[in-house]
Amino acid sequence: MPPLSQTFAVRHIESGVNGRLTAPAFLDLFQEIAGNDADRLGFSLDALAQRRLTWMLLRLFVRFDAPLPRLGDALTLTTWPSGHNGLSAWRDAVAVDTDGQALARVTTQWVIVDLDRRRPTRLPDDLYGFERPDLGRLDLADTPPTAPETVTDAAQVFVRRSDLDANRHANNARYVEWALEPLANGFLDAHRLATLDVLWKAEAFRGDRLEAIAGPDASGEPLAFAHAVAHADGRTSALVRTRWHTV
Asked: Which CATH number, 3.10.129.10, 3.40.50.1100, 3.40.50.1820, 3.40.30.10, labels domain 153-246?
């Protein structure tokens, strides 16, 4: 089965204060095409729900190669299933602008979750009973994101109904919004994301109160940050590592 490509024009609701597609909105577009490809291959959320199963994203890494497009401009996303084992499935994607310039490369790791137990289960035997494109996979960092050792910024978050997806928990892209929220306006105005690495740990539901924290990454790089989004009881919902370019 060939990879799936779709072209999206940046809408007002997807552009940020600098007039460009925001990183969370970019992830929304990736999830859109990933869902469309899963549907094409017979493993949509609806198809899995009939087995009392669902997809959940475990890990995501994005390398941003260029500034994301501005309001009204377009980008083309191409995605394909890039590997699997007994417990995880990988999906990659590339984004290019209208001139074919590389904008971003994405790799993701997914698990199948039993809806009744809300726990991961083995992938169905028929999940990859088709020929997948041999287009490679962007390797995830060996060391996953960790919480900041020193917290320099924090923000409070309240999970709204509008943050939820079909699995009735907070959508993956919302965690990225929350993780970036503690960073100062001055920093965000003067920098753009170079890489984004996210590890999801626990679900968040409507009414949950979360705290997003950020601080220097353990690598010591000057434009690298560690982020965490945690519940009031201390449970970590997501860990994020970001690296930035100066605009």
From this structure: 3.10.129.10
The pLDDT-based confidence of 32 (bands split at 50, 70, 90) is: very high
Count how many Cα atoms sit within 13 Å of the Cα of residue 103 in the half-sphere of its side chain.
Answer: 24
pTM of the model as a whole: 0.93
DSSP string covering 77-146: EEEEEEEE-SS-EEEEEEEEETT--EEEEEEEEEEEEETTTTEEEPPPTTTT-SPPP----PPPPSS---
Angle ∠(153,192,177) on CA atoms, nearest 5: 50
- Identify the DSSP state of 47: H
Token pair of 88, please?
């995880």
Closest CA to 94 of 110, 79, 82, 109: 79
